[in-house]
Write a structure and sequence with these properties.
Largest interface: A-B, 36 and 38 residues
Number of helices of chain A: 12
Structural class of chain B: alpha+beta
Distance between the termini of chain A: 31 Å
Structural class of chain A: alpha+beta
Number of domains of chain B: 2
Largest sheet of chain B: 5 strands, mixed
Order of helices and strands of chain B: EEHEEEHHHH
Number of strands of chain A: 14
Largest sheet of chain A: 5 strands, antiparallel
CATH topology of the largest domain in chain A: Uridine Diphospho-n-acetylenolpyruvylglucosamine Reductase, domain 3
Oligomer: heterodimer
Strand content of chain B: 15-25%
Distance between the termini of chain B: 58 Å
Radius of gyration of chain B: 16 Å
Number of strands of chain B: 5
Strand order of the largest sheet of chain B: 2-1-5-3-4
Shape of chain A: globular
CATH topology of the largest domain in chain B: Ubiquitin-like (UB roll)
Helix content of chain B: 25-40%
CATH superfamily of the largest domain in chain B: Beta-grasp domain
CATH class of the largest domain in chain B: Alpha Beta
Strand order of the largest sheet of chain A: 4-5-10-6-7
Number of helices of chain B: 5
Helix content of chain A: 25-40%
């Protein structure tokens, strides 16, 4: 239960961090909040030879409201997102999602950028970012670029980031007038990883749903006229989507169960999107986040 | 896979109000450094992967798992362990409340519980039962069940209000 030895660097700039990662090659790993990486290192499931800690790099924390975009710094913690009043007002799903992550002690350290770069299939942020059509701002040896979320997540715990790339921010399009979003998940106990969860984004009759905890990567489905359908036809559509999605079986739940529950969490995510708090209270009432 | 040689580095930590420089391997967890270099055995090590909350300490006033952080990461932060709270003669109100309400049996989870409760009361002086349960949800207890612990935190809020 102790990590193997590694070389530790805490550079003061993104450029210096990229340089150190270039030198380290496949031995290198970025350390942000460490709430996923450090347990994997304690178990020796991860054995990076070089750790590049971003804690001294300024400008990677906080939320900026730019024309047309909301930019969330990669090192912004789940707790900072949860407590951010302006963000909760403009995009309530961010607070509702942060509330579902781990426990207080984890939310205080864990970061949104770390979660996205870690790409756990059951994590909330990759799915939220995909549902919101966000992009990752990435710095690498060739400079800065933006990578749409769909192109970032390549598989379970796998992204298309190169060894010397650093995810520095998430860039979320400002919600259009009338756009709403919400989140709902099923977990065994408060703070546990989701067995199945969904993020819903709606505008008028159109719906975009992104599921997590189901397959190896978040999966989305869209319908332009979902809310024009009868309730029965909506349920049929959600059930059909649940059946066609890729689902994994593991110790906690079978793929068959997950596909059925996918339709239920999608319905509840849609209800969450229709509520004022994007599902924060609903999560609490259900006992999933007491 | 070749492992780099264990090189030690100096790190200055602010622990319970005093600064001290210690020499550590970068891979040493903050929980181990607090116990072995600082002798603060109130930092209890349970699961070592962030699940149980026994090693909870306060970093800049917020509860964190000391097993999910390397000591080298804590430079410049204000660290508090349960040893900072009180003495057997003069206990912190949270400790008094745990004692009065039988909020512990074996005591293994207690430092983490007490510190999380203190952080909660610093932020929310008069929390509801739901807020207490929410705050403590990341700390596991296998003896008392949680009812006495929740009552202890409610009592601690009263004691702190009485001054």
């Amino acid at each position: 239960m102790k990590p193997v030895a590694f070389r530790y660097h805490a550079p003061a700039s993104v450029q210096a961090a990229v340089g150190l990662l270039e030198e380290a090659g496949f031995e290198g790993k970025v350390l942000a909040g460490g709430q996923s990486l450090v347990p994997m290192m304690n178990f020796r499931l991860a054995r990076p030879g070089v750790l590049v800690d971003l804690r001294k790099v300024h400008g990677l924390t906080g939320v900026r409201f730019e024309a047309g975009h909301i930019v969330v710094g990669a090192l912004t913690t789940h707790e900072e997102i949860f407590l951010h009043e302006e963000l909760a007002r403009r995009l309530p799903v961010m607070r509702a999602a942060a509330a579902l992550i781990g426990h207080w002690g984890i939310r205080v350290r864990g970061t949104v950028g770390g979660s996205v770069a870690h790409a756990d299939p059951a994590a909330e942020w990759p799915a939220v970012m995909m549902a919101l059509s966000a992009s990752a701002v990435v710095s690498g040896p060739g400079g800065e670029r933006e990578v749409p979320m769909e192109e970032l997540v390549a598989g379970p715990l796998t992204t298309t980031l190169e060894p010397a790339d650093i995810l520095t921010a998430l860039k979320i399009p400002e919600p259009a007038a009338g756009e709403r979003s919400g989140i709902y998940e099923v977990a065994r106990r408060p703070g546990d990883f989701a067995l199945v969860g969904a993020v819903a984004k709606t505008r008028g009759a159109s719906v975009r749903l992104t599921w997590f905890g189901l397959g190896t990567v978040p999966q989305s489905r869209e319908s332009e006229r979902f809310h024009d359908l009868s309730e029965e036809a909506q349920t049929d559509q959600l059930t059909a989507w649940g059946q066609e999605l890729e689902a994994e079986s593991d110790l906690h739940a079978s793929a068959t169960w997950r596909k059925r529950v996918a339709a239920v969490v999608a319905r509840r995510a849609l209800l969450a999107a229709a509520s004022d708090d994007a599902g924060l209270e609903a999560g609490e009432r259900s006992g999933l986040h007491v | 896979m070749s492992e780099p040689k264990a090189e030690k580095v100096a790190v200055t930590l602010n622990v319970n109000g005093a600064e001290r420089t210690v020499t550590v391997e970068p891979r040493w967890l903050l929980s181990d450094v607090l116990r072995q270099e600082f002798g603060l055995t109130g930092v209890h090590i349970g699961c070592e992967h962030g699940v149980c909350g026994a090693c909870t300490i306060l970093v800049d006033g917020e509860p964190v798992r000391s097993c999910l952080q390397f000591a080298v990461q804590a430079e410049g932060a204000r660290i508090e362990t349960v040893e900072a709270l009180g003495t057997p003669e003069e206990m912190d109100p949270v400790q008094t409340a745990f004692w009065e309400k039988h909020g512990l049996q074996c005591g293994y989870c207690t430092p983490g519980m007490v510190l999380t409760a203190k952080a909660l009361l610093d932020r929310v002086p008069n929390p509801t039962e739901a807020e207490i349960r929410h705050a403590l949800s990341g700390n596991l207890c296998r003896c008392t069940g949680y009812q006495f612990i929740v009552e202890a935190v409610e009592r601690a809020a009263e004691l702190r209000a009485e001054g």
